[in-house]
Specification:
The chain is α+β, with helices and mostly antiparallel strands. The protein has one domain (49-178): Chitinase A, domain 3. The protein is 30% helix and 26% strand. It is built from 4 helices and 7 strands; from the N terminus they run H-H-E-E-E-E-H-E-H-E-E. Strands 1, 2, 3, 4, 5, 6 and 7 form a 7-stranded antiparallel sheet that branches. Strand 3 (80-89) and strand 4 (94-97) form a beta hairpin. The longest helix is centred in the N-terminal third of the chain and has 22 residues, at 24-45. The N and C termini lie far apart (79 Å).
């Protein structure tokens, strides 16, 4: 009996010691490098219409415009924006959308939901910061694809249908910018 108890305690202490040796920064770096490799593979194998792009390769963050409106109607902190979006995984699986037909086509349709475009005030941290950053680079009428690593998305926790450590793709259309108070 004593041998079993000592064995159990040794195993428990060994496990605690091992867990305490895990470096969260190294783990974050490993997750980021895996995300970056997956995003680069996605970009190498996926055809996305590209009329303009913003690349931050060091952070594995991309904005690729499919349509430019040239409306000159830019987004500023304090503005309220209205956006249609479709959220996807790199596999192409849709996990969320504001577009009814996309929801129907991907088995996400809920007849009790009206599918309005997303509306949010810029600078209030009400959406993913990387999503908002992408929208802030656009003008009314632009259509773009925002690609981000998991740490700029839902990170280690995931959320709803998004698993932890999952890079994300958002197809977005900036429908409207309602100007807020702006400093002169």
């Amino acid at each position: 009996m004593k041998i079993k108890l000592y064995s159990f305690l040794s195993l428990l202490i060994g496990s605690i010691t091992l867990v305490s040796c895990i470096d969260t920064e190294e783990t974050s770096e490993a997750i980021f490098l895996e995300d970056k490799a997956e995003i680069e593979a996605y970009l190498d194998t996926t055809t996305i219409v590209n009329v303009k792009e913003y690349k931050d390769q060091a952070n594995a963050y991309y904005i690729i415009w499919q349509e430019l409106s040239n409306s000159k109607d830019s987004v500023f902190v304090g503005d309220t924006v209205v956006v249609h979006y479709t959220g996807k995984f790199l596999s192409g699986q849709v996990f969320d959308t504001s577009i009814e037909q996309v929801a129907k086509d991907n088995g996400l349709y809920d007849s009790n939901y009206k599918y309005p475009p997303l509306s949010f005030k810029v600078g209030t941290f009400s959406v993913l910061t990387a999503f908002e950053f992408g929208i802030r680079q656009m003008e009314t009428g632009d259509k773009a694809t925002i690609i981000m690593p998991s740490e700029l998305g839902y990170g280690r926790n995931g959320q709803g249908p998004v698993p932890p450590n999952t890079p994300l793709v958002f197809e977005v259309e900036l429908m409207e910018v309602k100007p807020g108070l702006r400093e002169n």
